[in-house]
Amino acid sequence: MPETVRVERYADQGRCVGHLDGRVIFLRFALPGELVEVSVDQPVRAKARFLTGEVTRVIEASPDRVTPAWPLAGPLAQEGGVGGADLVHAGLPAQLAWKRSLIEQQMQRMGHVDASVEVVRAPGDEEAGGLHWRTRIDLIADEQGKPSMRRRESHERVAIDAMPLARIELNDLATQLGVWRGGFEPGSSIRLALPQHERDGQDGNYALLVDDKVKAGRRKLEEHVEVQGRDFTYEVDAAGFWQIHRQAPALLADAVLRAVQGGLQAQSAQVIWDLYSGSGLFSLPLATMAGEHGRVLAVEGSRVAVAQARYNAQRAGLDSRIEALAGDVAKRITGRIPQGFERPDAVVLDPPRAGAKAAVCRLIADSGAPLVVYVACDPTSLARDTATLTAAGYQLASIQAYDLYPMTHHVETLAVFTR
Ligand SMILES: C[S@@+](CC[C@H](N)C(=O)[O-])C[C@H]1O[C@@H](n2cnc3c(N)ncnc32)[C@H](O)[C@@H]1O
To answer: What is the Å distance from ligand 1's center to 277 Cα?
Structure first.
């Protein structure tokens, strides 16, 4: 007899919550209000405080439920299970509502602030039905040497011949390069990257990396980003970090710039810290708004990205305004901060998924910065760091989210703190 659950509410990691035999169960491919049959993930420990599982049949469907646009990423019971699109069963408006609810919930529970959060969709995503936004894809070669994804709950690898979340142009490039035909060493990692403005990779501005080695295209990619009417050019490492959604670099750089301008209520600032700065996506536009004597201190852990940030600054004629430091943020903003950068007017930070954590938040507060602009790819980490920042005297001034990962539970949030 299959187990039946009434789904209660959204939870994190693309799951919803219900109860089964008195225990909380986190369910994949569920929606609030639904009555569903589930399969419980095994093994279940007798003392486990909660269960996890997946919907196998929907008895009473939510009006938000849709047929997955990418069936392979849908529920296992419908021959899906490869992951990568855990909200594929929810309509696009429901995906936004889900992300909004989750950010508000985490900000309240862990950040201890009541916030109403708008989640904005990137231009073009609605028309594309939430597909075709990735400028980079990562796959593993299966036993036959074909690009594949692993099916959940098994060791089975499923060969794929298209990646629906990737730009159409990137899929076409993969076809042209023979990527879907395979021929890779089994188990090798395959990355294909095509910059946002490129149509076909004809000029070689793309990368096919296999086990981190260039097989076609080139390693140093050129990305163009328009921010407030000005074009910025970035050299980025094909294997390194770059915002994945085709619109993310422009949207986020613009949002950061506006937040700093608005927060300081001025078109210029003397000193801005750009922490976790990557190849300088935000540093360059920030440097253009810094006053005549204003400067940006960029701090980034990857040496390759720092070298590129320096090169990008130089090419933009902004090198005298940007000091790019390599190293761990926590170490770099403790003690010997380069002369002239000790008292920032604004701090921008864009940490990895785990967040900045308490020590870095306290160091930011110690810097005396009156304005903090936090770009977060994980609402839970943002909420945790919000609690530290508010305990250190900051107030949440505004918060806005961007759905830069349609079909997945991921979301980018920009929070502005002042004091
Ligand atoms: C989310 S990315 C943001 C990069 C950049 N702001 C952008 O949008 O392109 C986070 C960056 O933090 C860097 N990073 C991760 N942990 C770090 C640490 N402890 N100290 C310095 N940088 C770190 C990563 O290398 C990565 O480039």
So the answer is: 6
The beta-strand segments (E) located in 87-188 are: 118-121, 136-141, 147-150, 157-159
* Residue 304 identity: V
Q: What distance in Å separates the CA atoms of residue 399 and residue 414, rounded to the nearest whole number?
A: 6
Q: Is the CB of 243 under 6 A from ligand 1?
A: yes
Ligand 1 contacts CB of residue 349 (under 6 A): no
Total-model pTM: 0.96
369 closest CA partner among 274, 253, 256: 274
Supply angle C-alpha 233, 262, 230, rounded to 5: 20
**Is residue 268 over pLDDT 80?**
no
| Residue position matching structure tokens 């979301």 | 411
Give me ligand 1 centre to Cα 323, in Å: 16
CA-CA distance, 314 to 320, in Å (whole number)?
8
Predicted local distance difference test score (pLDDT) of residue 230: 96
Domains of the chain, each with CATH number or no CATH = 3-65 (2.40.50.140), 97-127+227-418 (3.40.50.150), 136-220 (no CATH)
What is residue 290's predicted lDDT score, i.e. its pLDDT?
78
Q: Is 402 labeled as ligand-binding?
A: no
pLDDT exceeds cutoff 90 at 401: yes
Residues in contact with 72: Cβ distance below 8 Å, sequence separation at least 6, in sequence order = 79, 80, 81, 82, 149, 158, 160
Tokens (6 digits) for 373: 């602009």
Q: What interface predicted TM-score (ipTM) does this complex get?
A: 0.99
279 token code pair: 């190849």
Cα angle 124, 128, 134; round to 5: 80
How do residues 34-74 score in pLDDT, each as one tens digit? 999 999 999 888 888 899 999 999 999 999 999 999 999 99
Q: What is the pLDDT of residue 266?
A: 62
What are the backbone angles phi and psi of residue 268, rounded to the nearest 5°?
-140, 155
Please report the pLDDT score of residue 155 as a whole number: 85
